[in-house]
Design goal:
Radius of gyration: 24 Å
CATH architecture of the largest domain: Orthogonal Bundle
Strand order of the largest sheet: 3-2-1-4-5
CATH superfamily of the largest domain: DNA Cyclobutane Dipyrimidine Photolyase, subunit A, domain 3
Structural class: mainly alpha
Distance between the termini: 70 Å
CATH topology of the largest domain: DNA Cyclobutane Dipyrimidine Photolyase, subunit A, domain 3
Number of helices: 23
CATH class of the largest domain: Mainly Alpha
Number of strands: 5
Largest sheet: 5 strands, parallel
Number of domains: 3
Helix content: 40-55%
Strand content: 5-15%
């Protein structure tokens, strides 16, 4: 029986999936079988292949997708290799005359779109590439009046909000046509050893990859923590953020589903969505908490969109600074400092807590990401690309566009970058955003007994306080890797060299 092949990529869901809906239409109109497929790519194939934590997530979300497809009367065929050759081979093995998939977001994925399409046409198979639903707006469609890409977030987001509102999400199909028996494909368990490492037990204790888990997280956030998001989102000691980022990255949810979930919560409270998402005005602090929180959260969703907008316009930004003068920045070479940062042994408790949370859970609170990144590039004066690489390998939500955007923002060399003279003080930031020390005590347990007064700067503690807490600086917990005040002056001097062109 002729077949329509549906190639899943980073749209690993059944609801709000335009590629799935189009494949269903093609299968029904041509009286085809429908075969959903996924191609597991070798990690060495491309520079930005999923890192270790991301592959853990990918394996588990495929397990969930496979279960969901079977519950809908279908199955998932797995293959391993380069999609450019593997997708046409799957089509040949399945007797497919049509292959449907969602357009790629990243440069490598877009190149694959063209190569796979050409290979299929050469084999007499029709490729159908549909726009995905993973973003609210087409990254290449939002432009300034002069037709250029935006490089500052606020006018970009204002332009986005002037476009038509995101369409209502598509429901999941109630059932799917039976899949053909051939090809049999790989068994998912065969990929487990390369994806699920022994150190990943902490990830499984925190996350539930897959569309059902994503929906549960969204429902809980929209009906709970969203109301306090504006006040709590910068506190790593509180459960004040959505934790939706890995679900969005792997397409278990779409940005449109998130948008409409927030809109639904506002509507139930009688709050106008348009007023919430408008740029904050003078009355922002007096606005109802839910309205302020919805606006702040959707603005973060817009920041994610901005990252993809920039990647589409400047595809080299994961490797090179957007502002070319920073290519000559006088970075230091300090392997020992880099290792201490990676391991959470810098001697600055809030930074160490952040890095240990990352290693254990595959995720880090956004405020903690800013502090950890600032410490690497400004206190240690190490290249932002080293941090980008580490986050890429250890984050379950590692996203090429947003990872590059975040690191270049902190380093001061990218679009809408933080001022070069902004150097976060890890002590004052810790005291401000972890005021009771709960975050540090959780992730740096060797300091748990130290009083809050000294917790974020243990080197300031009296010998008696250290002894009472069982802390021996340099033994049970390291002293500061650098003096922050001196490191700040060193960083500012280096930035002045770049700015002046000396």
């Amino acid at each position: 029986m002729p077949t329509t092949l549906l190639w899943f990529r980073r749209d690993l869901r059944l609801a709000d999936n335009p590629a799935l809906q189009r494949a269903l239409v093609e299968a029904q109109s041509h009286d085809h079988a429908l075969l959903p497929a996924f191609v597991w790519e070798p990690s060495a194939r491309r520079r930005w292949a999923p890192g270790a934590a991301a592959r853990w997530w990918l394996w588990h979300t495929l397990e969930s997708l496979e279960h969901d497809l079977r519950a809908h009367g279908s199955r998932l065929v797995l293959a391993q290799g380069d999609p450019v050759t593997t997708v046409p081979e799957l089509a040949r093995s399945a007797g497919a005359t049509i292959v449907v998939w969602a357009a790629g977001l990243e440069p490598q994925e877009q190149e694959d779109d063209e190569l796979v399409s050409a290979a299929l046409r050469a084999a007499g198979v029709e490729p159908i590439v549909v726009p995905g639903a993973d973003l609210l707006y087409d990254p290449a469609a939002v432009r300034t009046r002069e037709g250029r890409p935006y490089t500052v977030f606020t006018p970009y987001w204002r332009a986005c909000l002037g476009r038509p509102a995101p369409q209502a999400p598509l429901p999941a199909p109630e059932a799917l046509p039976p899949a053909p028996p051939e090809p049999a494909g790989l068994v998912l368990a065969a990929l487990r050893e390369t994806a699920v490492r022994p150190w990943a037990t902490g990830l499984g204790a925190v996350w539930q990859p897959g569309e059902p888990g994503a929906k549960a997280v969204l429902d809980a956030f929209a009906g709970g923590a969203l109301s306090g998001y504006a006040d709590d989102r910068d506190r790593p000691d509180l459960a004040g953020t959505s934790r939706l980022s890995p679900h969005l990255h792997w397409g278990e949810l779409t940005a449109g589903q998130v948008w409409h979930a927030v809109a639904g919560t506002l509507a139930e409270a009688g709050i106008d969505l348009e007023a919430s998402v408008s740029p904050p005005g003078r009355d922002a602090e007096q606005a109802p908490s839910l309205r302020r929180s919805a606006g702040a959260f959707l603005r973060q969703l817009g920041w994610r969109e901005f990252g993809h907008h920039l990647l589409a316009a400047f595809p080299d930004t994961p490797e090179r600074p957007l502002h070319e003068r920073f290519a000559a920045f006088p970075w230091r070479d300090d392997p020992a400092g880099l290792d201490a940062w990676r391991c959470g042994r810098t001697g600055y408790p809030i930074v160490d807590a952040a890095m240990r949370e990352l290693w254990t859970t595959g995720w880090m609170h956004n405020r903690a990401r800013l502090l950890a990144a600032s410490f690497l590039v400004k206190d240690l004066l190490l290249p932002w690309q080293l941090g980008e690489d580490w986050f890429w390998d250890t984050l379950v939500d590692a996203d090429l566009a947003d990872n590059a955007l975040g690191w270049q923002w902190v380093a001061g060399c990218g679009a809408d970058a933080a001022p070069y003279f902004r150097v976060f003080n890890p002590v004052t930031q810790g005291r401000r955003y972890d005021p009771d020390g709960a975050y540090v005590r959780r992730w740096v347990p060797e300091l748990a007994g130290l009083g809050t007064r000294y917790l974020h700067a243990p080197w300031e503690a009296t010998p008696a306080a250290l002894a009472a807490a069982g802390v021996a600086l340099g033994t049970t917990y390291p002293g500061p890797l650098v003096d922050h005040g001196e490191a700040r002056l060193r960083a500012l001097a280096a930035y002045d060299v770049v700015r002046s062109g000396r």
